[in-house]
Write a structure and sequence with these properties.
Blueprint (H helix, E strand, L loop, with lengths): L13 H11 L6 E4 H6 L4 H8 L3 E6 L17 H10 L5 E4 L6
Parallel strand pairs: 1-2, 2-3
Length: 103
């Protein structure tokens, strides 16, 4: 898939995100995992939880094709993959969903 331009002004992959977290090295830094940039980078949500652990405090659940922020079912993302990652890592912080979007 590769990167989707414009999805994130800070990081475009798990590697970028982990590097930023390491360089900032701040106890209070928390991360948001947005499923659209994850898919755009050809990555998996479970990898973000495995690498970032307790740094993930917000999960933004979106559908896309692979980019864009679409209503669930209008894109190509696998909802089960995302939900299984949340379960596997016992995620219990914030979750937001895209409720409406444009194609």
């Amino acid at each position: 898939m590769g990167e989707c331009l414009g999805e994130s002004p800070l990081t475009a992959s798990l590697r970028d995100t982990c590097q930023m977290v390491r360089e900032l090295d701040d106890l209070y830094l928390a991360c948001c995992v947005d499923t659209v940039p994850v898919y755009c980078a050809g990555e998996h949500t479970a990898d973000y939880f495995a690498a970032l652990g307790s740094k993930v405090h917000h999960f933004h659940l979106n559908d896309g094709a692979p980019d864009g922020h679409l209503i669930w079912g209008e894109g190509t993302h696998c909802l089960d993959e995302h939900l299984n990652a949340l379960r596997k890592y016992s995620y219990s912080c914030y979750i937001t969903m895209e409720m409406a979007g444009a194609k």
